[in-house]
Inverse folding.
C-alpha cells in the first residue's frame, strides 16, 4: 500500500490519515511541554514516539487517549474530532508500562471488562475473551489472578484486554520497559506479529531506539516537546535530520570542524568531504563507528570523490564481546571505530598508526549551533 | 534467625513488654469469675455470679445494646461520608479539598474534653442530649477523622493507571469507581470499618457529656458503676468489652489478614497519634 507524501508548510501530510494531531499544545502553568505538534498516522501503521524522558512522548500518548486535555489543537480519529471526548468514548486500547491489571479480577474478567462495558451478551463475551487469550497464548491462565502471573504474562493479559474491544487505535506506553531483556525480545516480535495480523493502527511510546527501529513502520523522534524528525527507521538512521537524532538513534562519532572556501571540511589538519551541504562555517561532523574502515598498513591519506581518509593514532581498545571498539586520536579529536570480533583477533597496541577511511555518503554534517 | 545474644535479649525484652501491657487486661478474666462481694485479686472463691448479675442488670444490658447499635450506625455513616469525601480530596482534588481534609481531621487535635464540652453546649440548646441521634453525631465527630485518613491513604496508594485503563476500556466515571476504585480500596475500607467501630464502641470522654439516665453506653455505664460500687461486676463488663474488640479484630483478620488491613491504616494511626500529642 503506497501513500503519496507531500510537504505542506514544512509539515509532512499523508492522504486520508487515520489519526491526526493538529497544532497540539500542552502547557502546565507557564511551562510548555508540547509545542505545536503535528502528526498524521496511516491506518494500520505502527508508529513509535521515541525520545528521552521528559520529551513529551507520554504526554502526547495520554492526550490521544483522552486522559489529559491539550491546551490547544485538534485530535481526530478517522476524520472524527475527538479532542473533547472523554476517554470512555474514544474507543482506544491502552497498555501501560505498569500493566494496570485489575488486581481483584481474574485474567478472564480483566479481559472481559471492556466487553461488559459495551453491554455484549455473555456468550459473545466468553467467545471473544477466549479468542483474545489464545492470541496471546494464555488460555490456560484464564482463572488466575494477575498477582499469580509473571511480568511478561501480565503484559500479555494487558495486551489482550486492550485488543479484545477491537479499538480503532492501540496505544502502548513503554509496554516492554518492566520486562527483562530476553522477554523483551520475545514480546517485541509478538506485539509486531499481532499488530500486523489485526492491521491495527498503533502508537508506541518508547525510549529504547532498538524497539523503535525493529518494530515500527515510522518513528517520531521527540525532544523537549518538539518533533525532531519523522521517518522510517531507515531514514531516521541513515539520514538523521538533526545532530540529536543522529546521536540518539544508534551510536556516532561527533567532532567539530570548519568549512573551507572550496566546500571541504577541516578537522585538525585533515580535510574531508560530505554529501550534505551545511551553510555555516562551524560544523559538527558525525560518522557511525561501524562505517569507518581501518587500514593498519596504509600511509597514504589521499582523498578521492567517494571516500574520506585521515591518519590516526590508536589510543585505547575496548572489547565488548561481539564488538571491539578502537579509540583513535585524529589531531586531538577522538574517533571510535567498531569492528565485529573474530576468534583470531590481530593484536594492536596503544600508539599504533593507521589510516581511517569512510564513505563521503556516511559523513553527516550539521551546523555547529544545531 | 540465629540464636545470638541480641536475639535472646530482644525476645526477653519483648515478652516483658507484652506482659507489662497485657497483664492488667488479662487480670480482668479471673476477677470476673470471682465469688466475692468486692473487687480483689486473687478472689477467695470462684463463681459465675457476676455474669448472672450482668445479665440481670437491665441498665448494663441496655447500655451494651445501645453501644452495639451506636457503633454500627456510626461506622456505616462514617464510611458513607468518608468514602466519597476521600475520593473528592485525593482524586478530584476539588478546590478547597485540603481545607476540607484539615477541617475533617481537626477534632483529633483538640483535647477531647473541650470537644465534649462544646458539643454539650450546642446539643443542650437543640435538645439532642441523651438521644441516639445526638450520640451518633457526637461520635461521628471523632470517627470521621480516622475513617477519612485511612481511606485517603489507601486511595492515595492506589495507582491511577487501573482507573485510567478502565475508562479507556469504556467505563463511565461511576462504573470506574464502582468496579475498579472501590474494590481496590477494600483493605482500607475494612481497616476504616474496624477502627470506626472500635473508636465508637470504646469512646468515653465525649459520650460522658451526651448521655443521661434515658440513654447511656456501656463504657460510660461502667465508669458510673465504678464510681458508686466496687463489686466485680465491672470485671465481667470489661470481659464483654474485650471480647467485642477481639471479635472485630478477628473478623478483620479472617476477611483479609490483619497485617494487610492495618498496614494501610498504620501510617495513618501513627500520624494521628503524632497529631494528637
Amino acid at each position: 500500500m503506497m501513500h503519496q507524501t507531500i510537504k505542506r508548510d514544512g509539515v509532512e501530510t499523508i492522504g486520508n490519515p487515520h489519526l491526526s494531531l493538529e497544532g497540539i499544545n500542552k502547557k502546565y502553568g507557564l511551562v510548555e511541554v508540547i509545542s505545536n505538534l503535528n502528526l498524521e498516522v496511516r491506518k494500520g501503521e505502527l508508529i513509535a514516539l521515541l525520545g528521552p524522558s521528559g520529551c513529551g512522548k507520554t504526554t502526547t500518548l495520554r492526550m490521544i487517549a483522552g486522559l489529559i486535555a491539550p491546551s490547544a489543537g485538534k485530535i481526530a480519529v478517522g476524520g472524527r474530532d475527538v479532542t473533547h471526548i472523554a476517554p470512555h468514548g474514544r474507543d482506544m486500547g491502552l497498555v501501560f508500562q505498569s500493566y494496570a491489571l485489575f488486581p481483584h479480577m481474574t485474567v478472564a474478567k480483566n479481559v472481559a471488562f471492556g466487553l461488559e462495558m459495551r453491554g455484549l451478551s455473555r456468550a459473545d463475551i466468553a467467545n471473544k475473551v477466549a479468542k483474545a487469550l489464545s492470541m496471546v497464548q494464555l488460555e490456560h491462565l484464564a482463572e488466575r489472578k494477575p498477582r499469580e502471573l509473571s511480568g511478561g504474562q501480565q503484559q500479555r493479559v494487558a495486551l489482550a484486554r486492550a485488543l479484545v474491544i477491537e479499538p480503532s487505535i492501540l496505544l502502548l506506553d513503554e509496554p516492554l520497559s518492566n520486562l527483562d531483556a530476553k522477554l523483551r525480545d520475545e514480546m517485541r516480535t509478538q506485539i509486531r506479529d499481532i499488530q500486523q495480523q489485526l492491521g491495527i493502527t498503533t502508537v508506541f511510546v518508547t525510549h529504547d531506539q532498538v524497539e523503535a527501529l525493529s518494530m515500527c513502520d515510522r518513528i517520531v523522534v521527540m525532544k523537549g516537546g518538539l518533533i525532531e524528525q519523522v521517518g522510517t527507521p531507515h531514514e531516521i538512521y541513515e539520514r538523521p535530520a538533526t545532530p540529536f537524532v543522529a546521536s540518539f538513534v544508534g551510536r556516532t562519532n561527533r567532532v567539530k570542524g570548519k568549512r573551507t572556501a572550496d566546500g571541504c571540511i577541516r578537522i585538525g589538519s585533515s580535510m574531508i568531504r560530505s554529501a550534505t551541504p551545511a551553510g555555516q562555517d562551524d560544523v559538527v561532523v558525525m560518522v557511525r563507528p561501524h562505517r569507518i574502515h581501518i587500514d593498519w598498513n596504509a600511509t597514504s591519506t589521499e582523498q578521492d570523490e567517494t571516500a574520506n581518509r585521515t591518519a590516526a593514532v590508536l589510543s585505547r581498545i575496548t572489547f565488548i564481546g561481539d564488538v571491539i571498539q578502537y579509540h583513535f586520536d585524529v589531531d586531538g579529536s577522538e574517533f571510535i571505530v567498531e569492528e565485529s570480533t573474530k576468534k583470531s583477533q590481530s593484536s594492536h597496541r596503544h600508539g599504533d598508526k593507521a589510516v581511517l577511511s569512510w564513505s563521503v555518503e556516511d559523513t553527516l554534517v550539521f551546523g555547529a549551533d544545531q | 534467625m540465629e540464636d545470638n545474644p541480641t536475639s535472646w535479649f530482644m525476645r526477653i525484652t519483648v515478652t516483658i513488654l507484652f506482659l507489662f501491657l497485657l497483664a492488667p487486661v488479662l487480670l480482668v478474666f479471673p476477677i470476673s469469675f470471682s465469688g466475692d462481694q468486692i473487687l480483689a485479686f486473687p478472689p477467695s472463691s470462684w463463681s459465675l455470679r457476676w455474669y448472672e448479675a450482668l445479665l440481670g442488670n437491665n441498665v448494663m444490658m441496655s447500655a451494651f445494646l445501645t453501644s452495639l447499635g451506636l457503633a454500627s450506625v456510626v461506622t456505616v455513616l462514617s464510611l458513607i461520608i468518608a468514602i466519597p469525601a476521600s475520593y473528592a480530596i485525593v482524586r478530584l482534588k476539588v478546590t478547597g479539598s485540603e481545607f476540607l481534609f484539615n477541617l475533617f481531621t481537626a477534632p483529633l487535635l483538640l483535647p477531647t474534653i473541650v470537644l465534649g464540652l462544646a458539643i454539650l453546649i450546642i446539643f443542650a440548646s437543640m435538645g439532642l442530649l441523651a438521644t441516639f441521634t445526638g450520640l451518633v453525631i457526637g461520635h461521628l465527630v471523632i470517627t470521621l477523622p480516622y475513617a477519612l485518613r485511612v481511606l485517603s491513604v489507601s486511595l492515595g496508594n492506589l495507582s491511577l493507571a487501573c482507573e485510567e485503563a478502565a475508562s479507556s476500556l469504556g467505563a463511565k466515571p461511576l462504573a470506574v469507581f464502582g468496579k475498579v476504585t472501590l474494590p481496590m480500596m477494600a483493605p482500607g475500607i475494612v481497616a476504616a470499618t474496624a477502627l470506626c467501630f472500635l473508636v465508637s464502641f470504646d469512646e468515653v470522654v465525649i459520650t460522658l457529656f451526651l448521655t443521661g439516665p434515658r440513654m447511656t453506653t456501656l463504657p460510660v455505664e461502667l465508669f458510673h458503676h465504678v464510681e458508686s460500687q466496687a463489686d466485680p461486676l465491672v470485671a465481667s463488663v470489661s470481659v464483654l468489652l474485650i471480647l467485642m474488640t477481639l471479635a472485630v479484630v478477628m473478623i478483620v483478620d479472617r476477611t483479609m489478614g490483619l497485617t494487610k488491613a492495618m498496614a494501610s491504616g498504620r501510617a495513618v494511626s501513627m500520624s494521628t497519634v503524632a497529631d494528637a500529642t
